[in-house]
Amino acid sequence: MSARQVTLHDKSFSVYFPSEDIRLAVQKVAGEIERDLNGETPLFIGVLNGVVPFAADLLREMQVDCEITFVKLSSYSGTKSTGQVSVDLGLNEKIAGRTIVVLEDIIDTGLTVEKILNLLEGENPKTVKVASLLYKPDAFKGNYKVDYVGKEIPNEFVVGYGLDYDGLGRNLKDIYKIVE
Ligand code: XMP
Ligand code: MG
User: Fold this and answer.
1) How many whole angstroms separate alpha carbon 167 and alpha carbon 175?
2) C-alpha of residue 113 to centroid of ligand 1, in Å
């Protein structure tokens, strides 16, 4: 059993999605991606650091051949988006002609993924889709479609299962939301 409530730094969080709900959401996303593949071998591009648990579980739900690589971008400081996205680790893979699925733990303003989509644009991929475990539609300002969503959530700060509050909380098995 995991704790119903946790404290990270100066803030308290209560369970929002237990691990079993997360597992079902990951299976749903994997199934939808597979359904759309038409025999292609996708290259997943995961956004570090938060995507690690989601990417690891999603990959193991995929029944077809697939590849994965990672990029690292940052936009968050504490519990707020700074509005600026910096690329800390870029792409080395050959993208031309590939079926790409960008993987995120959470899409909030959408700026991080927009930056990746802009980087990919010049590399002539065959198709680019976006998959995110969590999606905050009320915060989203992007100019693109989020093709696969595990769960839509209101505009609240969440941690666990890869998501952090200033570095802590990524190891939690459940997803928690902030107690205001
Ligand atoms: P944007 O706004 O670019 O944000 O879509 C994407 C990145 O911001 C982080 N993020 C969060 N991290 N709880 C977190 O722990 C949240 O509620 C949250 N909202 C956004 C995350 O790193 C994501 O990749
Ligand atoms: Mg992230």
Assistant:
1) 15
2) 11
